[in-house]
Amino acid sequence: MATRKPGPDFRRDTMTQRIALRLFAVLFAATLLAGAAQAQPAAYPQQPLKWVVPYAPGGTTDVIARQLAVRMGQTLGQSVIADNKPGAASIIGATFIARSAPDGYTVGTADSGTLAFNPAMYASLGYDAGKDFSLIGGLGRMPLVLAVHPSFPAKDVQEFLALVRKSPGAVSSASAGSGSPLHVALELFKQQTRTDILHVAYKGAAPALQDLMAGQVNSMFVDLPASLSMIKAGKIRVLAVATPQRLALLPDVPTMAEAGVPGYQAYAWQGLVGPAGLPTPVLERLNKELVAALSHAQTRSRLQEIGIEPMPMAPQQFADFVHDEQKRWSGVIKAASIRLD
């Protein structure tokens, strides 16, 4: 029997099937690509960031945040907007950060008070310093110096200590408030020198400095950025710097070790944090841009000119630093019986 050749209808059916299969393959591939695109997170950041500053505008913390926010905004491709939330020894701002969504759009400054002092001084806080934050990196540290009124009779630290020991409790020393870095630095000094100095707490560093310049108090541990202009104008006199080496801005002033108090060091410091649980890529991006901003020649020079030492750190380095500071200062606070409940 002769074999029947495929007719036109058969060939048309076969071609239709091939076209249908090709269309199906194209559509299937497009579906897979669309699904993959949806699975990929959007590049960060997609909107402006908020930088919470837990102190009032105009102070050292605010200056650092705004300097770095501008630089980081340029490299992130989104604005970084400073948002001041002052009050309660940084607790208000810190609590706001801790309770924000961990999406990388709310970050903020946490300082030595926020992370190292408050946990040792308060039985209850609005945040847990060890659990509620993602530690992004260091910002800067502010050297502390021991200053006196120009008329104060002591010309160096040893004369200062002699006067203190001659009349225990008679020599006064101001601070920005109970539990502030300036107060804790004083307590460390008292413990290491075994002296009795009268602590006078003010509501902020500005009124304390005003009274020091007026001679209402004898002495004060002050951070360099807040006091540099007064030092240069001769309105207060520095006996020693609480740093391992002499400061470039005060080259003629001895360190505490040179002045006869070995091992005494005290800084106020700040870092950048976000809420706990920041995604690793977001944390790494923020740290990268922060380190770049701190390393930028113009920004670094500007900070150093006003007495701030840039403190770039990787997240783990900053976490280790905070842990060491918590351990160190909690002992000082406990020994001084500082409680702010």
From TrEMBL:
Leader sequence segment: 1-39
Keyword Signal: yes
Keywords: Signal
Origin superkingdom: Bacteria
Pfam families per UniProt: TctC (PF03401)
Keyword Cell inner membrane belongs to the record: no
Family: Belongs to the UPF0065 (bug) family.
Protein name in UniProt: Uncharacterized protein UPF0065
